[in-house]
Amino acid sequence: MNLQKLQLENQELKRKLQIAQMWMEREVRFQVEKISLLHVENYSDNDKTNLKVYSDEDIIKQITEFIWDVLMLNVPATFMENIISAEVQYHSLEQNHNFDWLWVISSYHKALDVLIENFITKWFRKFAHKKGQTYLRKNDLLEKSLNSVVNQGYILGVWRFFHLLKLIKQDGELFEYGKCFKEYLEKYHYLWDVFLENQFYDCLSALVNSEILGKKRHIWNINFEETKQARSLLIWDFKNTESLIYKLIETQKIEC
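RE: above sequence
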């Protein structure tokens, strides 16, 4: 009886996943078409002749297959909007390397921040409050940042996230908020297993050390090759399961 019940529940979950997948593909299609139209309208007729023609269907296919390969039901809408915007712009500008790549990187950066906020930071806030870790007791930049994250709703940010992982991985000195974050990852071991394993950590290290999300973005100095490299680390053309975004989404995987 229990086996039959489990089989029925499994069939119902698969049915819901199929419905959600169809809904998501329609939503992605709508967003791609809308963003593509807005993107093209931003250029003069002369510029439009230099834009690479890249099929909306290709973008729709690669995004939906990438997301649904990890059976993700609750990817934030703002993530989808930013990743679609980044992809539409990237493929449109790919042939003309003289265009400003800042807006492409900005969209990728926002998409990454959205995942970190929704899959890591908001749960860390709740964990810290439950543990009573809501007071700043050390004059330390990282501790001050984490205090703002916990008490004022600030985002954790890619650089701070990496710095925390680096301290944990290298057994560096952690203060109260840092220790709380380490305890949080230890409790939710599926996060620990992903973030502290070498592939994810090395990819995140390469992204942060490239300064493309920091100094180079702030001084408006980003070229095509740097954008291409950052995109590879983030999504690997929507094919590599070791990319940063795939790994982040995979932490929320639903088994069926």
